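Final report, Chapter 2: Outcomes

The project's central promise was a pipeline that accepts a single protein chain and returns its three-dimensional structure in a standardized token representation, suitable for archiving and comparison. That pipeline is now operational. To close this chapter, we reproduce one record exactly as it appears in the project archive, with the input sequence first and the structure output second.
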Amino acid sequence: MIRASIIGATGYTGAELVRLLYGHDAVELSILSSRSSAGEDIADIYPSLRHCVTHILEEQDIEKIVKNSDVIFICLPHGHAVAAAAKAYGAGTKVIDLGADFRLKDPSVYRQWYGVEHLHPELLDIAVYGLPEIYRSEIEEARIVANPGCYPTSIILGMAPLVQEGLVKPGTIIADSKSGVSGAGKTASDKTHFVNCNENINAYGVSGHRHRPEIEQELGFLAGERLRVSFTPHLMPITRGILSTVYADLTEDITEEQVRELYADVYADAQFVRILAPGIWPHTRWVYGSNFC
């Protein structure tokens, strides 16, 4: 059994991770930490876990967590995962960071978009971007995995087949994305208050969103050159789910059938990517609570 611990287990991401790991027959939940709820049973915070997961939440004691884990998941805001990940890496324990601290390879870009210095920039080249449809073999050997952002996952998977075949003109990619409210995290704000988001839709991060450099970085790697992406996210009055509609000018004329064949070929072994039949377009409800795209 793989002993897995979660740092930051009571946020939306951490709680979803508890649910997924509980159902994994090769994983044993070891330590669940939470600074705000230490001493409480996680099933009292999330009653849906009752009779499934009975775990008293602990303070974040990284030495103890490392000692009792084969893999550590970190579910903390940006800037808070680096120190814990560095200690775990030094002890030989694998780390999967669900935040943004290891997604960007350039520490100056990280500083520009997240407003803090990266405390261990030497680990950025070691970390593997955790999108298995592109980096499956690298993830298998990785000591640090940077879980992709939500918007980037949808946009990168949507554009990867065309980009890596050189079928997209650089600088022409436009991503129009819409997200549910839970993507903003558990901390309440005016933006996510029911009165403000119900029966409403609004754009945000229009002058520049933190996920844009992540999207440009990964699509640039696939293209073998720097790409510019115009990206606008929108908040929708739904709990969870993302829908991205992505546009680009092509370098040559190809038919819809050829595009469909290309995507089917690229994602033939990607069990979580579903290619829809002609004339059928995605609904967020169809992937609700799943790992499907």
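Archive annotation: The CA atoms of residues 54 and 145 lie 27 Å apart.
This record, like all others produced under the grant, will remain available to the consortium after the project formally closes.
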